[in-house]
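Appendix B. Extra example for self-study. Work through it before the problem class; the solution is given directly after the inputs so you can check yourself.
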Amino acid sequence: MTARYVAVVGPGEGAAPEDVALAREVGALLAERGAIVLTGGLGGVMAAAVDGAGSRGGLTVGLLPGSDRSGCAAAVTIPTGLGELRNGLLVRAADALIAVGGSWGTLSEIALAMRTGVPVVVVGDGWDVSGPTDAPARARNAAEAVRAALG
Amino acid sequence: MTARYVAVVGPGEGAAPEDVALAREVGALLAERGAIVLTGGLGGVMAAAVDGAGSRGGLTVGLLPGSDRSGCAAAVTIPTGLGELRNGLLVRAADALIAVGGSWGTLSEIALAMRTGVPVVVVGDGWDVSGPTDAPARARNAAEAVRAALG
Amino acid sequence: MTARYVAVVGPGEGAAPEDVALAREVGALLAERGAIVLTGGLGGVMAAAVDGAGSRGGLTVGLLPGSDRSGCAAAVTIPTGLGELRNGLLVRAADALIAVGGSWGTLSEIALAMRTGVPVVVVGDGWDVSGPTDAPARARNAAEAVRAALG
Amino acid sequence: MTARYVAVVGPGEGAAPEDVALAREVGALLAERGAIVLTGGLGGVMAAAVDGAGSRGGLTVGLLPGSDRSGCAAAVTIPTGLGELRNGLLVRAADALIAVGGSWGTLSEIALAMRTGVPVVVVGDGWDVSGPTDAPARARNAAEAVRAALG
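Solution. Structure tokens for the complete assembly:
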């Protein structure tokens, strides 16, 4: 069986402490289920998801916006140099996306995933957004989010 | 003086007729003000903005998601082959963004613009989205949208 | 009939004066034939091709590696922010490619064009490169290059 | 100490058997040295490098041109959907590049690496290319290539 790739997205520096804690738990639970954790490679929610997954021996990947891999703790770091276009790359590489908390960058990832049919789960104080005909799934906690993402 | 580049974004095929009419008017008014109209190069709102700008002799650019330029009426067509990542390219190339109507792709463009500091104006039945600390400007009609975008 | 897009590629700052003169002539001849001139938007060969095409009223497009459009004289400027990945975008958007003079960046564009089936013409003191089974066309002067590119 | 990322590039399907054997050896030696092997994720030289590295327990990454990760044996697969633009992403993510055998795609990667200052080693029947002032290093066998790449 192939591993599942789950993107954990959310605010970087300045993320709320409860979102950081939630992201760490999401990362840990994903690793326990054998999923590979994809992130945007920066701090806050992203670093916490990497940290949580790493604490359970999970494989983690950071797709960085800049051209320098330093400072990212993921096991595999890809400095894309694409700036915000790496959000689209992250969504494309993901089998599912869990959004923890909200920022405009996070919203762009939710919207791109909804647009391209990548399942989205929103957990925490994130964007409460719904389109004319559909809306991302909502989870009340990390365990529910991971179940929704992995089935 | 350098020309201003304004991205007009919104749904493609399946766009509401009133959004299509609005986009045509936005395109025409932008051309009258000497702005270059950027679009995602597909149908609906995008084609209408190109059509409106062209009717006033304006310069138009289509940044297409696919690798084929056929079917796009913009004066300059760039088949990017980037799929949804061309949304980020469109935002990056824009000095301002006018969103007409809503779709998940449109929302991704609004969010990327808000994220990167490109001024956004929403007109028509678009997304009514606001972040924790800021929100895109709202216009009631095409003239107001163009004024908000060009100053 | 749709306009043909021809990419004129070659060294930027530091280009040899004879390559700059050749690029200007290539740009002018392309414009006379109604082709749209695509370039990488920087100086040297790129700026000369834009200048030559502009002198004949031709439409010119600059796909810049950076995120800032200032300093590029093309009629349409797209600041891609993709760095060297814009070379691939330039090749993708081109119906044919004329390489004037040589640099590693130019070689990457020749190779990507050969790889993806975009016709290539090399003129001036460029790379003399041939693959196991094929090689780019060679032209002795600007007129021959433009004929080879546009048929 | 951070792991070093070495891109192993070369022809996919249709690669010469001796290049495939060489790539497998290069991958194995890189893994023994603790390097992470990056490839373009397709067959031929790319698959052989992944196979070789995997046989020594090395970590491998495939940056695929398409949007589908199936068929790539790398431990981490990123379906970029960028087509040939993923060549630039591969070069950007690499601390060094080893080219085994030659194709136009390979040449584009060598050229982009030379352009952006990523050290290049050519081994096998690859491109024999040199610019006006510099040329990629040449290695006579896999061991020499890996030593040149990792120092």
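Self-check: Strands of chain A lie at 5-9, 36-39, 60-64, 76-79, 96-100, 120-123, 137-139. If your reasoning did not lead you there, revisit section 3.
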